[in-house]
Design goal:
2 copies of one chain form a homodimer.
Chain A (H helix, E strand, L loop, with lengths): L1 E5 L14 E5 L4 H10 L4 E4 L3 H7 L5 E6 L2 E2 L14 H4 L3 E5 L3 H7 L5 E5 L4 H11 L3 E5 L8 H18 L5 E2 L1 H13 L3 H7 L1 H8 L3 H8 L8 E4 L2 E4 L2 H6 L2
Chain lengths: 246, 246
């Protein structure tokens, strides 16, 4: 199985995703939030690039979620903290979400056969889904404003490590950036939280009062669920759906 | 001290190098070759981007060196293997060198105050030189055709590690990519040669019969010499020169 790891959205070319599975990773915080919302019973997440588009798609009963510069968008129901997307708030609702990087990454990946949302929370499940979907796979680290973010690279490294655990070393081939991210993850795996506090987004989160979000986003493999894009909305991947894709 | 690590030449913007020290790293093989040539008594290396430019600058007594697609350029005296640049061949001579990535990286860095050539061979010396030259520093991983190469990232990680050893953890600040490369180096440091054999250029070298070059380029901190660009040629940095730059 060939897995390419891409360092940030700016380096991604949509046409390279044709016929592939793309796992979009934005650990702090978009994909961690999407996963949390869906496992808490949210009906679907609609990722959009702009505030205007979010407002256009809004229908009564929906929730508007998103951030710009780490802050909730004025007039929106929710920001981009996974801790806001509780069962009480999101169960049975559709959430229209716009964030600076993660939702842009999902939009960029639209040409792929399958678009999944990955984070540390569901890395093992992402590896299993990628295997089940039987495509060459790209891990697209969202990064921040077209610059690499360490937490996304660590997650890519963990997904690679889970793929190697599942398939064996010989059956997982990756690019040099993937090799680097796997090494980087293996070095940091016992100190993930401390490592996330040293990186740009971790420091920014703490400064903005979101340290609890970093704690939440650092949890590893706490769910076996994987969000997948169906038409224009993210829902939980069903195993039968994976089977259909063979 | 702030150290930015840039993943490949395509990501580098010349204007970002103003007033800085740039350490260009192309472990396999251009900067390893430049270091080897200069410590073997080569008078100067003139890095140029094209074969035409190399031939234009040639004067009697010079040597022409370089590669395209790992192979020696027809009519040139030398390829791009550090093992060719022995004392017997290069002592007292000027070498005009053109390679696919490394010399391009040096050209790209021209706007910097100081341009150094770094590799695993002289990583500690590069860290010491960067400290002595007292500038914000960029480690420019040359990569291969605008794609990240693992061996350059490992070298960036080692240079960072040497900076931390010299200055202390608190006095070395790097970007997220630098943090990742440092982690990646620390994971691989006891198996550098084996790791280099798994990456794209390592595999390409072995396939082309240059495995001995990989062995040679993997040697760590075997010299305290650092090539520096003076006008349009690389020579060994003299300590007094470092002092002049303060």
């Amino acid at each position: 199985m060939y897995i390419e790891v891409v360092a940030n959205i700016g380096e991604a070319r949509s046409d390279d995703f044709l016929h592939k599975t793309v796992i979009v990773v934005d650990v702090i915080r978009a994909t961690s939030t999407i996963i949390t919302a869906l496992i808490n019973g949210c009906k679907a997440i609609i990722p959009v690039e702009t505030v205007l588009k979010a407002k256009e798609l809004y229908r009564e009963g929906d929730l508007l979620g998103g951030e710009r510069f780490c802050k909730k968008i004025p007039g929106f129901d929710l920001g981009n903290s996974p801790l806001e997307f509780t069962k009480e708030v999101v169960q049975g609702k559709r959430v229209i979400l716009t964030t600076t990087n993660g939702t842009r990454g999902i939009q960029k990946a639209m040409k792929a056969d399958h678009v999944l949302a990955g984070a540390l929370l569901n890395s093992k499940a992402c590896a299993e889904a990628a295997i089940a979907l039987k495509r060459d796979t790209v891990i697209l680290c969202a990064g921040t404003q077209d610059v690499f973010s360490l937490e996304d690279g660590l997650c890519a490294g963990l997904i690679l490590e889970e793929l190697v655990s599942a398939l064996g070393e010989k059956h997982v081939v990756t690019n040099d950036f993937g090799l680097a991210m796997r090494g980087c993850y293996l070095h940091a795996k016992n100190t993930l939280y401390e490592t996330l506090l040293t990186c740009t987004n971790g420091k920014k989160m703490c400064k903005s009062g979101f340290q609890a979000d970093v704690v939440s986003c650092t949890k590893t493999n706490i769910t076996d669920q994987v969000p997948i894009l169906e038409q224009d909305q993210m829902v939980l991947l069903q195993l039968s759906q994976g089977r259909r894709a063979f």
